[in-house]
Amino acid sequence: MHAPEDGAVDPREVEYVFAWRPASGWLGRFPNLRLILSAAAGVDHLLADPSLPPHVPIVRMVTQETAARMGDYVLFAAPGVVRELPALVAAQGARQWAPALTGRLAVETTVGVMGIGQLGAACAQRLLAAGFRVAGWSRTEKQVDGVRGFHGADGLDAFLARSDILVNLLPQTSATRGILHAGTFARLPRGAALINVGRSAHVDHDALLAALDAGHLRAAVLDVLDVEPLPPQHPLWTHPKVFVTPHVASTASVGARVRQAVASIRAHRAGAELAHLYDRTHGY
Ligand code: NAP
Question: In sequence order, which residues have a C-beta less than 8 Å from that of residue 206 and are 6 or more positions away?
Answer without folding.
Answer: none
